[in-house]
Write a structure and sequence with these properties.
Elements (H helix, E strand, L loop, with lengths): L15 E9 L2 E2 L7 E2 L14 E3 L7 E9 L7 H12 L5 H21 L14 H14 L5 H21 L11 E9 L5 E9 L15 E2 L3 E2 L4 H14 L2 H13 L3 H4 L22 E6 L14 E6 H11 L2 H7 L39 H14 L12 H19 L5 H11 L5 H13 L7 H24 L12
Antiparallel strand pairs: 1-5, 2-4, 3-4, 6-7, 8-9, 10-11
Length: 494
């Protein structure tokens, strides 16, 4: 008889988060106030009779995204789930923040289980109080290198949010302090360059993060951005031509010629394009045409929903118009639930889904929260190609924004050197083209440029070079694609 392989020990059940979509919101009420009655079991079988419900006042009828936390036995963890429910439906917590908070709280409860502690019991010494015990376990993860201080601080904030909710809305009164708060005053510079003092409250639960010393390796602008050198800009473009994906090529071109954030880039619509400009014979093909972003009548999204006008060269408008008129795009658009042509996304996958689903459109795409994952996956392919020539090359799509900023400074540096423009005027041009509110962020671009004077290339000269390359290579790509067999099943949805 053949020997049986030993069975793997089963992992014991744990606290876990569950994501829910399109949840109807209701509350019990008196029969005369009922809008509906909950579906009930047969009363003859001993089950409760149906009861009346009504929509929750001052609330939407449905919640697109909710998170609950299940106990190890599969039952709902009431405190954590109710906290998340109120945070999302009443406080407006974003979907991504709620997803993080749900995971953090599930992790907290699992660590309480591992330690044999009741998360509501603050009777014992400090080391056995739930908040301090959780901090100790996170500190061990930091010391081992498994987690960063920033990541662990986020978990601490999630746990503190739960306890603050318990004390303010559920009359929870811990017998001893859950943490100690301190207030300190720090100076800061506002977006207009004025210095102010503000109070900052911190607790003894969070981990102090030492400020990194600026070494000029990146620009802090919604993340750490690394401008791409002249040589690598050309290598990236050649890699894009080789990979032959028109959507990804155009997304990169937009990033390099406008400095658009990914969120805006991928939510551009047909009516974002100015038609009839920028063809090869247009003497004004390098002129700039504005795109309205985040205005009330524009479905194009922006960071923090900031209304702005992004300037795009005429020749890029023309490229986009040619693309949305192509059979390739029309086939993709035909699979999209959006039927109004002007509101259609420019960038769709082969199944008709946007690469980045705008919040207002989530209900059209099964409440998807897709935020550009296919694009990030494609960037890895670009990196692989470029590494044939430069083994140390790496980039993220947001680096194109920093690259555009550097090229724009280079484009205007001659006027500044000749006295035709001063530094404040240059900062104003850069701030407006990048649609930045905080002058401090804009100044980081100028400081980076001063530290790396040979990194950038003049934006105007770069665009002439880029436009010529793109027109030639897109023609070649279309010829190659015409002779290429159709994609096989199971391939990436790009």
């Amino acid at each position: 008889m053949p020997a049986q392989s030993p069975q793997k020990p089963q992992t014991p059940p744990r606290y876990r988060k569950i994501a829910l979509k399109n949840v109807r919101l209701w509350e019990p009420c008196r029969p005369e106030e009922a809008f509906d009655w909950m579906a009930a079991y047969d009363a003859d079988d001993g089950q409760p009779e149906p009861y009346p419900t009504r929509p929750i006042r001052l609330s939407d009828e449905y919640a697109p995204h909710l998170y609950v936390i299940l106990r190890p036995d599969g039952a709902l963890w009431q405190e954590g789930s109710l906290y998340l429910f109120e945070s999302i439906t009443e406080q407006g917590m974003s979907e991504s923040s709620a997803a993080n908070a749900a995971g953090d709280l599930a992790d907290f409860m699992n660590k309480m289980d591992d330690s044999g502690l009741d998360f509501l019991n603050f009777d014992g010494p400090q080391s056995l109080r739930p908040t301090y015990r959780y901090r100790a376990t996170l500190k061990s993860e930091i010391m081992s290198g498994a987690r960063s201080k920033g990541y662990c601080n986020r978990k601490i904030y999630s746990v503190q949010g739960l306890y603050r909710w318990l004390t303010t809305t559920r009359n929870f009164k811990p017998k001893q302090v859950m943490w100690v708060s301190t207030t300190r005053q720090i100076p800061y510079t506002d977006r207009h360059g004025n210095t102010h003092i503000k109070d900052v409250i911190s607790t003894d639960l969070t981990f102090k993060k030492s400020k990194s010393i600026p070494v000029g390796k990146y620009i802090v602008d919604g993340g750490k951005l690394c401008p791409i050198s002249r040589e690598n800009q050309d290598r990236v473009m050649r890699a894009l031509f080789e990979l032959g994906n028109p959507e990804m090529l155009l997304v990169h071109i937009i990033g390099l010629t406008t400095g658009m954030r990914v969120q805006t880039n991928l939510t551009l619509r047909h009516d974002s394009i100015t038609q009839g400009v920028g063809d090869e014979d247009d003497p004004e093909k390098y002129a700039l045409y504005g795109i309205n972003v985040a205005f009330e009548d524009s479905p194009v999204e922006a960071k923090n929903s900031k209304e702005q006008v992004v300037m795009m060269p005429a020749w890029v408008h023309h490229m986009l118009h040619v693309y949305i008129s192509s059979d390739r795009h029309k086939q993709r658009a035909a699979k999209s639930p959006i039927t109004e042509d002007s509101q259609q996304y420019i960038f769709l996958t082969r199944t008709g889904k946007p690469y980045y689903v705008a919040k207002a459109d989530e209900h059209l795409f099964d409440f998807s929260t897709e935020k550009g994952s296919a694009l990030r996956h494609f960037c890895k392919k670009v990196i692989e190609v470029v590494k044939r020539e430069n083994k140390r090359f790496n980039y993220q799509l947001h680096d194109l924004r920093a690259t555009f900023g550097m090229n724009l400074i280079e484009d205007n540096s001659g006027d500044m050197e000749n006295g035709k423009m001063n530094q404040l005027e240059l900062l104003d041009i850069l701030k407006n083209r990048l649609n930045q509110e905080d002058i401090n962020v804009t100044m980081r671009y100028l400081k980076y440029y001063q530290d790396h004077p040979r990194l950038a290339q003049a934006q105007s000269g770069f665009e002439v070079h880029l436009e010529s390359l793109v027109r030639t290579e897109m023609t070649k790509n279309e010829q190659r694609r015409a002779n290429r067999p159709p994609p096989q099943s199971g391939v990436t949805d790009e």
